[in-house]
Amino acid sequence: MRLAAVSISVLFGQLGQVWAVPVQDSAASTLSNIQKRGIRWDWDESKPNGDKQVEIASAFSVALQMVGHAYDGGKDDYFSDVYRRYFQADTEWSGIYAVWERIIGPLDGDRRSGAGLNSVIISNADWKDDDCDRKEVLGWADNRSVDGVPGCIIKLCDKAYEFPQAYDIKCDDLDDVVSKKMSTISGIFIHELTHCQQIGQVALGGNAIVDHNTDGRKEGYGPRNVVKNGNGNMFKSLINADNYRWLATEMYWRAQCPARGGFGVATSNQDFAKCDTEDGECVIQ
């Protein structure tokens, strides 16, 4: 059975007790208000992983918490140093924050979902030219329509379901540096959200957020590569999706695990899962 146009707020109502990690007030406020905005679903329970819709909704809600921590924490001098790992923060700040606002709304607003979020359609359907047919792909986002209604399709591939939920990770599980142990299914959603036209492209004045690859090298992916991007070409980091993913991931875990005293710069580019490819690396389209 396909569950079309189901409001994510219905599912969030079932999820209030599953978060095993603390929720800061700003993130909790964001999640409370997003229940007032519907996110469309193109979901078929008979498909593989079709029974995991509630888990996916939970992961999506934590993705919004992560964005909330990145948005709010970036105003703090301590956390602004983290931004500089991933972006040329002093010159790119306005663009970065425009992307966050398209997802969660401006800081001085009522913290309802951002203007771009209601374009999102979460799907597990079969699609023509489906990138999930490629063994290295964790998920994809594309500006398509469902039942004639335009939007941004986000589909997670089978490999993505191997990634942990944030609430399954304890602070003591994490390394002293940013690493694959921080990686979650929620982070995949952040990556995909930036690809949505009504989020990334609108926020950056027409410049789409992409995945930087050169001659087959996956230089735009991974916790170490995105630090290199941030310290290199300014515009390259601003329009690379995984920079946003790993910034929000690190900011989230710093907020959740203050006793750790922060985390060092990633020393490895390995992500949580390994794909069945020559280099073992996965990609998020």
Structure description:
The chain is globular. The protein has helices spanning 8-12, 25-34, 53-73, 77-86, 89-104, 185-195, 197-203, 225-230, 234-238, 241-256; strands at 2-4, 40-44, 120-123, 137-146, 149-156, 283-284. Helix 6 (185-195) crosses helix 10 (241-256). It has a single domain, classed as Collagenase (Catalytic Domain) (3-Layer(aba) Sandwich), CATH 3.40.390.10. Strands 1-2-3-5-4-6 form a six-stranded mixed beta sheet, covered by helices on one side. By secondary structure, it is α/β, with parallel strands linked by helices. Mean pLDDT is 79; it is low at 1-35. Helices cover 38% and strands 11% of the residues. The protein starts with a strand and ends with a strand.
Give the helix/strand layout.
Elements: E1 2-4, H1 8-12, H2 25-34, E2 40-44, H3 53-73, H4 77-86, H5 89-104, E3 120-123, E4 137-146, E5 149-156, H6 185-195, H7 197-203, H8 225-230, H9 234-238, H10 241-256, E6 283-284
Parallel strand pairs: 2-3, 3-5, 4-6
Antiparallel strand pairs: 1-2, 4-5
Helix pairs in contact: 2-3, 3-5, 3-6, 3-10, 4-10, 5-7, 6-10
The helix content, as a percent range, equals: 25-40%
How much of the sequence is in beta strands? 5-15%
Number of distinct beta strands:
6
- Count of all domains: 1
